[in-house]
Write a structure and sequence with these properties.
The structure is a homodimer. With about 400 residues, the first copy, chain A, is an alpha+beta fold. Chain A folds into 2 domains: about 270 residues, L-amino peptidase D-ALA esterase/amidase (4-Layer Sandwich); about 120 residues, ArgJ beta chain, C-terminal domain (Ubiquitin-like (UB roll), Roll). Helices cover about 30% and strands about 25% of the residues of chain A. Chain A has a 7-stranded mixed β-sheet. The first copy, chain A, is globular, with a radius of gyration of 22 Å. The two termini of chain A are about 30 Å apart. The interface between A and B is large, with 61 and 62 residues.
């Protein structure tokens, strides 16, 4: 993956995607003086799909959206999660969908919902419903940037990606996505919302399959703090405006290329989330190779990527490899401690479990904004990667000093 | 458990335990100007036992001590872990045992070893061997306080406990213990060293069984950061100096009472470790009741006790109960989110998964140095408790700013 610090989100990313309109508004429902409502509408809509948190305390908008099979629009609010709000929360979600549908000429069962913010707070329905007419009236093909900004909470930068492809008959199409982070980022599905649009015609079943596989390689491979949220949702909508035959299944012509583009876009969005993790000063790709099984490879990579001691060493730029070995040793993965090799980027940091006399070079790598930490276990052929950030003073400030 | 802030370790705790001598010395092997070597000798020794880290990267002293069946003495150093030091590390451990044995009139196979400090650093054998004669010459019944201080690393206070009991024939006996924390504290076995002495005669087999059960209720139920160390070791030695018949098994007269005393002492030591966790400003007992199984109860309690978002909320004294629900929901424990109740001490914080309107009282509890957080899942009869601390700026400072 490329370094996002070198790849800022420019205005071209927010050019219209054929068949979509978007809008944003400042409702004041929790935040003051900034947009906190977003709306996306596909017109026409060829298909939609979503994947959601596996947390056993799903928010009301998650419960609502899981039940939608013919989604055409997404309404998002930032600041209040509408999670653990009980029957009232479900009623509020329904009322949001009904109000948005009425204003947009859609059915409530076509409105997908997403919320992010403080758990337990009921939605400020008065403020939301008051802002809704203006939100719907503002729908425009030029609205994508405003939408991408309105969904943020503790994020410090907007996160969006755009990719182009050629359909089965050569016609160009676009895949566009935006996301919000930035704490409670962990499997399964980080605390994150992400919205992907394409004008390529795709069936709902194909979209769901492509989205699941793409999420497995991206959003389910990142971690800020090991906490998995009640509200994680990833949506995709297809307008079909690019024309041509629809992708119906993995066997359809062009399906493989579309999936590659989608997965790459999701991976780039995931990286933007980690780069902007709460208080993050480092982005580290933790890769475990040579594990006995894929399950062990992932367990080992996650143990390192989530270890507070390893993450504070990233923050301190301290090449304290013993903490990495200790995390591997408690991960549940089988290993011989004196067969483990560690690399920081290309620096051979630890050889056969012993310091390799490269501390100065290792320290140089750790001064970078972004680098890789690779562990070779020498037990088999399985490997896994997890993208993580450091644990900094800033994380504690953000999460300990006020209610985010 | 009582609050340790109200129960400082006074000089009476360090009165001699019949049949034991202890010593400490400043070797300068890593730390400067403070004691970093400790020695305990039982004379005579009726039995000894140890339990050790389950990390797959055990330190050389752990490998050495696991192989000892007739231990009579323990040699400890602080500052260098002698972990991931390969064959050289094992040779160094053997040389330590041989040197200490020669000076004390014991066999090397009677010397248990423990080290704590930076992983990967080889032992500074020159400094250690130079300090050893003075260490052994200093052995004295009055040496327990010096020993308890010499084993510390980032700990800010000495941790020791003393309890008295009456043997099967009424003769009084003593159980004494000391420990060091204070980061990398997690199951199984925190990063910790602890040493327990008793003058009650006990067989090695009985000691091992009592120690395992006691550790399960104490050191395996605390967490600072979820990281499990390469060096965790808990030893017990019996001098038998109190006289009377030896405890040979759980059925021996007086065995039950001894185990109660031992477990209580280990729980108090564990609490002292959490109270002094790296950067800790809060000690919280997380209890889950009404879980479907003991495994689910423990998983749920650990998920809450180790959640960075929950722990930063403890630090910020922010009654943000949604983070607790989110942690329970991802813990793997089965639950209905609208059947969950939460209590902070006696304040009924969340009722049926919904805010119970007690935020001001909840905030009052969170201002305390020490409190309990109890979750009722309403699924069954199983329960579990985990003792944890908050995640503070201080933790990041200690672990991010220099090599501890």
């Amino acid at each position: 993956m490329t370094r996002n610090a070198e790849r800022p989100v420019g205005p071209a990313v927010f050019a219209p995607v054929p068949g979509f309109r978007a809008a944003s508004a400042a409702s004041g429902m929790r935040y003051r003086g900034r947009p906190d409502l977003g709306l996306l509408v596909a017109d026409p809509c060829r298909g939609a799909a979503g994947v959601f948190t596996r947390n056993l305390c799903p928010a009301a908008p998650v419960i609502w959206s899981r039940g939608i099979t013919g989604g055409r629009a997404v309404l998002v609010n930032a600041g209040q999660a509408n999670a653990q709000t009980g029957k009232k929360g479900l009623e509020d979600s329904r009322a949001c969908a009904e109000a948005a549908a009425g204003r947009c000429g859609l059915k409530p069962s076509e409105i997908l919902l997403a919320s992010t913010g403080v758990i337990g707070d009921p939605l400020n329905m008065g403020a939301l419903l008051e802002a809704l007419p203006g939100l719907c009236a503002g729908l425009s093909p030029e609205g994508l940037e405003g939408f991408a900004r309105a969904i943020l909470t503790t994020d410090t930068v907007v996160k969006a990606e755009r990719a182009e492809g050629a359909g089965p008959e050569g016609a160009p199409y676009t895949v566009w996505g935006c996301a919000k982070g930035s704490g409670m980022i962990a499997p399964d599905m980080a605390t994150m919302l992400a919205f992907v649009l394409t004008d390529l015609p795709c069936s709902p079943a194909f979209l769901l399959d492509a989205l699941r596989k793409g999420a497995g390689a991206s959003f389910n491979r990142i971690t800020v703090d090991g906490d998995t949220s009640t509200n994680d949702s990833l949506f995709i909508l297809s307008s079909g405006a690019a024309g041509g035959p629809a992708l119906e299944s993995a066997e359809s012509p062009g399906a493989g290329r579309f999936r590659e583009i989608l997965t790459g876009l999701l991976m780039n969005l995931a990286r933007r989330i980690i780069d902007d993790g709460e208080g993050a000063t480092k982005t580290v790709t933790v890769t475990v190779k040579g594990a006995a099984s894929p399950r062990e490879a992932e367990a080992a990579a996650r143990a390192v990527a989530e270890s507070p001691l390893v993450k504070t060493a990233f923050f301190g730029e301290d090449p304290n490899w013993g903490r990495v070995l200790a995390a591997l040793g408690r991960s549940g993965a089988s290993l011989d401690p004196y067969r483990v090799d560690l690399f920081l980027d290309s620096v051979h940091w630890v050889k056969d479990g012993i310091d390799n006399g490269r501390e100065a070079e290792a320290r140089q790598v750790m001064r970078r904004r972004s680098y890789s930490l690779t562990a070779l276990l020498g037990r088999g052929d399985a490997e896994a990667s997890v993208l993580t950030c450091d644990l900094s003073r800033g994380y504690v400030e953000i999460n300990g000093s006020y209610r985010s």
